[in-house]
Amino acid sequence: MKKFMDKDFLLQGKTAQKLYHGYAKDLPIIDYHCHISPEDIARDRVFDNITRIWLEGDHYKWRAMRINGIDEKYITGEAGDREKFSKWSETVPYCIGNPLFHWTHLELKRYFNIDCILSQDTADSVWEIANDKIAREDFSTKNLIKNSNVEIICTTDNPTDSLEYHSEINADKSFGVKVIPTMRNDMCINIGNPAYAQWVKELEKVSGTTITDLDSLKEAIIGRIDHFDNIGCRISDHALESVDFYSADEKDINRIYKKVREGGSPDCGEKGKYMSHMMVFLGREYAKRGWAMQLHIGALRNNNSRMAAFLGPDTGFDSIGDSLFASGLASLLDALDSTDELPRTVLFCLNPRDNEVLGTLIGCFTQKGIKSKVQFGPGWWFNDQKDGMERHMTALANLSLLSSFIGMTTDSRSFLSYPRHEYFRRILCNILGIWVHNGEVPDDMDMLGEMVKNICYSNAREFFDL
């Protein structure tokens, strides 16, 4: 029987072990999609204790604690940091089978050299050991990032953001890690969002543009795209519950825009027309600048209206949606490709039912000289666990080219989440090792090792032009 989480954790057999330890383990990390705070990096924040660095903003852990019956005051409420940590420690043993169990203990090992199972019984000692290390200078955010072998970070930023913290980070030549913004353009397309009118006012302010119609709106958005581009942005991002594609002329879209600005509410068809038009407009602007476009598809958000009203979005009340989007997504990509203005694109699906949909769709839009111009992004959110990653990579290998895959990203708000790259790398190497053991692929370490290095590092750097 193997020891829990030893050096060969998740690696079944010699080939998997050789691939991980010899080729994957020490590669730098390119975290091309995450939600960590640029301000925390710029300020080189030092966290007060393990609760602040581990539980602050982590809706994965919050969700598990709620499912375990923990009172909200110990999750996002008024309880003290020590009490919140105790309640998380109480929850961890119940997480067996959930990736949180693996991530928790990987992070305890890698950052604190703690090699015990976190529980009520060990909470006191873990609290003391971890906080003693956190108090040291090498636990500031910049040191954590550098010591995690991170080379590039792409944060997620609102179009109205000043990006002042990115400028501060770029000015620190001693840091040595590239931190660049990603333009999250959800509000540009979501005209039905109740906050849309207020967002346009913010856009007017930061762009210095008086927005009266569709043309002036686009002018302001282009100005923000240029601002992001000047700071080094190479990627955009959109969260889409589904993708319905509608044709409409500029006159009709302008009418819909003015209707909403004057206090009206768009119907479902108008929302779809507006989203479709703006996605094509934005995609063309991304392509002009050589940006990549990420589409995160399929989350059903804020299902608990009572808690969403109390805590706001992204607090642990989202789930997997089951809308059908293949036809609409294909039409969107085709509308951009038909004029040779399709940017490099990464497609994420939250419902694993759709793995084969994306695994085949990506092969319909290719370009000479670009490997996998449309990528099937890694197992995302509810799928960034062992089974989800295996299902994703198996579908990708079956239907496209696994060798061209751009690998893992944390999609995290935590500065201790980088072992998720280790987790992914171990799972990838194990898949290849099993294939070798079964005689399904050659036992050629040079070929497979190069494949591992490309998936874990080189492909993302090339694809995003970082």
What key attributes describe this structure?
three-stranded parallel sheet; TIM Barrel; 2 domains; globular; 466 residues; uronate isomerase, domain 2, chain A; alpha/beta
Report what the structure shows.
By secondary structure, the chain is an alpha/beta fold. The chain has 2 domains: 349 residues, TIM Barrel (Alpha-Beta Barrel); 94 residues, Orthogonal Bundle (uronate isomerase, domain 2, chain A), CATH 1.10.2020.10. The chain has 20 helices and 10 strands. It has a 5-stranded parallel sheet, with helices on one face. Strands 1-2-3 form a 3-stranded parallel sheet. Strand 2, helix 9 and strand 3 form a beta-alpha-beta unit.
**What's the alpha carbon Rg, rounded to whole Å?**
23 Å
Poorly predicted regions: none
Please identify the top-level CATH class of the largest domain. Alpha Beta
Write out the strand line-up for the largest beta sheet, numbering strands in chain order: 4-5-6-9-10
Helix content bin? 40-55%
The proportion of strand residues reads 5-15%
Shape: globular
How many domains make up the coordinates? 2
CATH H level, superfamily name of the largest domain: Metal-dependent hydrolases
Q: Strand count, sense and closure of the main sheet?
A: 5 strands, parallel
Order of helices and strands: HEHHHHHHHEHEEHHHEHHEEHEHEHEHHH
Please report the number of helical segments.
20
Span of the ends, CA to CA: 43 Å
Mean pLDDT: 97
**Name of the CATH architecture of the largest domain:** Alpha-Beta Barrel
